[in-house]
Design a protein that fits this description.
The radius of gyration is 16 Å and the shape is globular. The protein has helices spanning about 5-40, 85-90, 100-105, 120, 125-130, 140-150, 160-170, 175-190, and strands at about 45-50, 55-60, 110, 140. It has a two-stranded antiparallel sheet with strand order 1-2. The protein is mainly alpha-helical. It has one domain.
Length: about 190
């Protein structure tokens, strides 16, 4: 990864996150209100995740589960009863991810990169899996695009490294733009 690309990516991430937060703030406020009406508890869910070089950070998401639920579930079941009806919609449309724009703005995530992993999984990483932690995690990435296209099956991120390792090996400005564009198209498609 070149120095110029690294500097440009960091600047573009923060600028895009700030602009998106301004543009999407009415939608985010509406989602927050809907969550508060749908179930008790805060609208934003905070969870520790592992970022670049193994550093822990607090990830933000819209809360999609009932208030009293375990923080982590090693193997969530299909039709998980912990997820609220509104939460199912937010997950299907990826709208639950919007608060991660604050993570991008803070600098502990990028718009594009590997998904941030949960600590109990990352602590068991082998040498190959540790390569995922060489770059900042992303709001979207090759794995997320593949999942939205139905190519990942039921495999979890840590069970399917090829997408993240491919991204890290080839990362460049045009690949980032392609992933962002494809994500936007797939999210809109899933919304309707």
């Amino acid at each position: 990864m070149g120095v110029l690309y690294s500097i440009a990516k960091k600047a573009a991430d923060r600028l895009a996150a700030a602009l998106l937060l301004v543009v999407l703030s009415p939608l985010m406020l509406a989602i927050s209100a809907a969550i508060k009406i749908d179930s008790k508890g805060p609208a934003i869910y905070r969870q520790k995740r592992v970022g670049k070089e193994g550093r822990l950070f607090t990830l933000y998401k819209f809360r999609t589960m009932k208030l009293i639920t375990p923080k982590y579930m090693k193997k969530p079941k299909q039709g998980d009863k912990r997820v609220t009806p509104l939460g199912r919609f937010l997950r299907r449309t990826c709208l639950d991810e919007l608060p991660q724009l604050f993570n991008v703005l803070k600098g502990n995530m990028s718009l594009v990169g590997p998904r941030p992993e949960m600590p109990f999984i990352a602590e068991k990483y082998n040498k190959k899996q540790m390569q995922r932690l060489a770059v900042k995690p992303g709001l979207t990435g090759l794995w997320q695009v593949a999942r939205l296209e139905g190519k990942t099956g039921k495999r979890h991120i840590h069970e399917d490294l090829k997408y993240d390792l491919q991204y890290i090996k080839k990362m460049n400005f045009f690949l980032d733009l392609k992933i962002l564009a494809k994500t936007a198209v797939l999210v809109i498609k899933n919304f309707f």
